[in-house]
Amino acid sequence: MSLDPPVVAEGLERHFGDVKAVDGVDLVVNQGEIFGFLGPNGAGKSTTVRMLATLLTPTAGSARVAGYDVVRDAAMVRRNIGVALQDAAIDPIMTGRELLALQAVLFGIAKDRARARGDELLDRVGLTAAADRRVGTYSGGMRRRLDLALSLIHGPTVLFLDEPTTGLDPMSRLALWDEVRRLNEEGTTVLLTTQYLEEADQLAGRIAIIDHGRIVKEGEPKALKDEVGAPTLIVALDNAHELMGAQALSRFGEPRAAPSGSIGVGLAGGAEALADVVRALDDAGVVVQHMELNAPSLDDVFAEATGHRLEGADDATKQPADEEADMAPRRGRRRR
Q1: What average pLDDT does the chain have?
Q2: How does 230-250 read in b/e, with b if 16+ C-beta sit within 10 Å?
Q3: Which of 62-66, 205-209, 329-333 has the lowest average pLDDT?
Q4: What is d(CA 27, CA 25) in angstroms, rounded to the nearest whole number?
Q5: How many domains in the chain?
């Protein structure tokens, strides 16, 4: 087995006509870690994963996965990885048990071993009771857990999870998080793409933030948040008071990206400065609709790196149970 990092990409690019979906990505995922790839829809996360999983051919650059080149040794890469894609198609007519048996055949697993392995995976993802039901009767969370089991049938050394919890209810999301942690503790290297800040914070030992096809920040979540420094004060006000509010707040810290209709500032004095902020806004005649002070978060890291916030990404738990939702991020304005 190679001692090199299981995932290495250098100058990886993918063009679709004149559009550079991935624009020179350098990436290293170390053995035994959960690596989070964080960014909004359309940032290039899924395209990068598809290249690493040999589903798309890079336009430029190179990548090695499990010690093999993703272009020259694509077949060997596939034998060593598991892939659970956000838009994976699962035959609704077959049962969960039948799909696992079919997946085992595709990987050349002996019949007796395949049956035992299938039962083991059904148990660990909580689908034993539904194993002989048609997948068309499964909820969204059950399908996602089955897709995870399918990706694990051959015992991969590297697991790619592309937006694994999008649209899931809170309990299904937490259950899948627990399973990812357990897999990692057993030695599986995981590359996880997500647009959920909490998911990246909870699971990943290191993250890379991608925006417009380029990695703009990389490191351990805690270290990245520490770099932000002061907490972020968000003040929501009506348009008529926006300019006066910005002027009143300018002396309390550096401007930070904020949602539309709000002003953000890195409050150098922290919570102790809030009383002075309120007085300054009152003296300026500014009507405040809402005010909140937030400790540095990955959203702040993202905002500092890109100039806009990944809005809605940490509201995952508010999505309807097992329904796909429109997760397109709204982009706030950066005030200087």
Answers
A1: 86
A2: bbbbbbbbeeebeeebbebbe
A3: 329-333
A4: 6
A5: 2
